[in-house]
Design brief:
The protein is an alpha/beta fold and 500 residues long. It folds into two domains: 6-176, Rossmann fold (3-Layer(aba) Sandwich); 213-489, tm_1862 like domain (pyruvate-formate lyase- activating enzyme). The protein has 18 helices and 17 strands. The strands form four sheets. A seven-stranded mixed sheet has the order 2-1-3-4-5-6-7, with helices on both faces. Helix 15 links the parallel strand 14 and strand 15 (410-414). It is globular, with a radius of gyration of 23 Å. The N and C termini lie far apart (64 Å). It binds iron/sulfur cluster (SF4). Residues 223, 225-227, 230, 232-233, 275, 305 line the site of iron/sulfur cluster (SF4). Residues 223, 225-227, 230, 232-233, 275, 305 line the site of iron/sulfur cluster.
Length: 500
């Protein structure tokens, strides 16, 4: 019997960190395998589909997780496709993404392979230079550029008018089209067409357990801040994607997304893909009021990008989301006022997380019984060993004070950090007293290939003036293990009456 192959115009593959499936059972719970698909991929897939292209999304690490024997080669041999998009947003997929390209071209040498995402945007010229299998890289925001690319390929036309595209032309020369597309309005994009993903239901079922987050809700694009190591801040986005401003989706659209997901899948909570700061509080109040009106029985994961986070917000958050599967996170990275001041002076005057306001957060989290996660890092710029020791002592005091009680939902986490391409410290390491390592794409891919997959991000690509990369890794590990007990007493299993 002859089976007809499924036909797709475009397939989008989310790459793994490593191709080989780790058969160790515990690996099932390892966050580092990173099954998350960047939010924009769903919008891109939907946008292409609406314009008449047949699209499928394949989540390689999810397939690996569901079936250790799963093979991308086997899967690709059973479908026809013309274009393959690979997201290289988070850098830890660097090695896996390159391995995936090789498989795609081996199975279907006539297909076109396009990369996209922040990391790909940064390394676009190196990707094209070092890997002949890659036909193009879309820099920055991808929905319109990928559609134009697919249309041009379909009509066999020149690619010089495709916005944001770097590519190899028919004479094998690398061409770089300017970045001329950034979305002005996100309300026309659909971020919830999850049905285009292979094994969508399992993706949503497993995300919270594997990654700590159930579903990423798109709230807007851009960030007004410049944290030293972040590749998604204001100047980093300007540099990588051409975005000069922050835009928000209308709260009504976000509510529509929540309804679609809740009607079709079982998700315990939503992670909001934008943070809180003074200028965004009004938006959050509007959105939370609408959620209350809809009476969604759901948890919420919210990040504080800048303080203050007033008591009123705690009250509203408490009223909007149930306790189980809800959290509020803040990432001062260090509590040292001296370090914060130097960072504020060098790259972002808003980088201020005063201890009295952190203590207020703790007080309100206890009052409203909502999980508070405080993220610290050993190895932030200018941090001395004594600064790290003071942070550690603060974390220990919290552990003894709150770590034994389910009714005091405070947790302090510590993680090593990677300096992301495009971030302030990556572009100007000297200003931060930092020596960067593994800076070319080849070195980056090799570093992630050789790193063990673990709960934390375990590649450290720098030394500071006070600490070597090796000490940074060890100190973070020690710090993390010392405070990890608090993770078990965040009280998420305690039921409550919410809308009092
Ligand atoms: S880490 Fe800082 S710069 Fe990056 S998205 Fe968050 S608030 Fe913005």
């Amino acid at each position: 019997m002859v089976f007809a192959l499924r036909n797709y115009d475009v397939i989008l593959i989310h790459p793994p960190r490593l191709l080989e499936s780790n058969k160790d059972k515990n690996s099932k719970f390892i966050r580092g395998s990173y099954i998350f698909i960047p939010m924009g991929v769903f919008a891109i897939a939907d946008y292409l589909e609406k314009e008449g292209f047949g699209v499928k999304i394949i989540n390689f690490p999810l397939e690996q997780y569901l079936n250790h024997e799963w093979s991308l080669t086997g899967f690709l041999k059973n479908i026809n496709f013309k274009i393959c998009g690979i997201d290289l947003h988070w850098l830890h997929n660097a090695h896996g993404a390159i391995e995936v390209v090789k498989i795609v071209k081996e199975v279907n040498p006539n297909s076109k392979v396009i990369f996209g995402g922040y990391s790909a945007s940064y390394y676009h010229d190196q990707l094209l230079k070092y890997y002949k299998e890659i036909d193009g890289v879309i820099r920055g925001e991808g929905e319109v550029p990928l559609l134009r690319y697919a249309q041009m390929i379909q009509k066999n036309q020149r690619l010089d008018s495709v916005p944001n595209l770097s590519y190899r032309n028919s004479s094998k020369q690398i061409k770089i089209n300017p970045i001329t597309y950034t979305a002005k309005n996100l309300d026309d994009l659909v971020f919830t067409n999850v049905s285009l993903l292979k094994n969508a239901e399992q993706y949503l079922n497993h995300s919270r357990r594997l990654m700590g987050i159930a579903y990423n809700l798109s709230i807007g694009r851009g960030c007004p801040f410049n944290c030293p190591f972040c590749g998604g801040g204001q100047r980093a986005q300007q540099y990588l994607t051409g975005r000069n401003n922050v835009i928000f989706r209308s709260p009504e659209k976000v509510i529509e997304d929540m309804s679609i997901i809740l009607d079709n899948y079982k998700v315990p909570s939503f992670f909001f893909g934008h943070g809180t700061y003074s200028a965004s509080l009004k938006y959050w109040k509007n959105l939370f009021a609408l959620i209350q009106k809809e009476k969604f029985d759901i948890g919420g994961d919210l990040e504080i990008w800048r303080l203050p986070f007033p008591k009123e917000m705690w009250r509203i958050f408490h009223k909007t989301f149930h306790r189980k599967y809800s959290s509020i996170s803040v990432s001062p990275r260090t509590l040292s006022p001296k370090v914060q001041d130097r960072i504020a002076k060098i790259c972002d005057p808003t980088f201020k997380f005063p201890i009295n306001q952190i203590n207020d957060l703790i007080k309100n989290a206890n009052l409203y019984q909502r999980t508070l996660r405080i993220w610290l890092t050993a190895g932030y710029p200018f941090q001395t060993r004594s600064d790290i020791l003071k942070d550690f002592i603060y974390a220990m005091k919290c552990l003894f004070k709150y770590g034994k009680s389910n009714f005091k939902p405070i947790s302090i986490y510590n993680e090593p950090f990677y300096i992301f391409p495009g971030s302030p410290a990556h572009r100007f390491p000297d200003k931060f007293g930092i020596t960067l390592k593994d800076n070319s794409f080849l070195q980056v891919a090799e570093a992630f290939k050789n790193s063990k997959i673990s709960f934390l991000y375990n590649v450290v690509n720098y030394d500071t003036e006070h600490l070597s990369g090796t000490s940074i890794r060890s100190m973070n590990k020690l710090f993390f293990l010392s405070t990890f007990l608090m993770f078990f007493t965040i009280g998420s299993n305690i039921s409550e009456v919410r809308n009092e």
